[in-house]
Amino acid sequence: MRQISFNQQDTSAIGLGTWRMGEGNAAKNDEELKTIQYALNNGVTLLDTAEIYGDGQSETLIGKAIKGFNRSDFQIISKFAPNHATPKLMKKSLENSLKRLQTDYLDLYLLHWRGSTPLEETIQGLQEVQKAGYIKNWGVSNFDIADLEELSKLPGGSDCRVNEDLYNVGSRGIEYSILPWQKENNMSLVGYSPFGSDGGDYLTIKPVLKDLAKQKNVSVYQLLLAWVIRNRDLLSIPKSSSVEHLKANMAATDIEFTADELELIDSQYPRPNKKTQLEVI
């Protein structure tokens, strides 16, 4: 598995997203549990979840799956909802997440999206749980450039390690200002939903992608994932609910593009030349 530098350490080029996992029947949950275990046994070193995913069912599934694994061999990201962004509520949310995950700590704890709680209070809460050893580092999610700049100017704000935003070939807005800013400020980026969404509602598959996938003898979805991680400068977290799907995603990390192929994709899915509103799923 290809490695990248993420959260100031070597990490697999793709993590495993777990949105909507753990919410099915016993057979489906067992298949997803085995998928998580296969990922950890075969080079995937990061799991991404959140307290709102199935009201904690995703975290519960991960907690069952990671039993017997060396916890220091992989990272877990979880996220707290904006209505839990005060120090008191955040601590309670974190305690509940850790209980469901059956772990003593999180590698990264993220504010899922910005709400009404002042960022100063949220930073204070994150500093407190970090000092107590409940989390190693913290970050944010669905932050636009103005949010990141505001955060960085607050006391302790420069300690933010990660921002997690939507990123795929049809949603390239972060390339204009967010990704360059994060590189300059040594903040890692997680790109979520490399396929648009579960049903492809946020990404139109144009003929150029189908033709190129056929030429490379890969699926369109493998091509989409390979494109997202092409520059080795961010982590993508595709969801995989089966071992078969996971194997396909892992194989996508070996796909390379020529300059002409990237230019062809750019012609149909243009890179941004101005600031656009941050897209969120």
From TrEMBL:
Residues 13-267 form the NADP-dependent oxidoreductase domain. InterPro entries: AKR (IPR020471), NAD(P)_OxRdtase_dom_sf (IPR036812), NADP_OxRdtase_dom (IPR023210). It comes from the Bacteria. This is Aldo/keto reductase. Pfam families: Aldo_ket_red. Gene3D superfamilies: NADP-dependent oxidoreductase domain. SUPFAM superfamilies: NAD(P)-linked oxidoreductase.
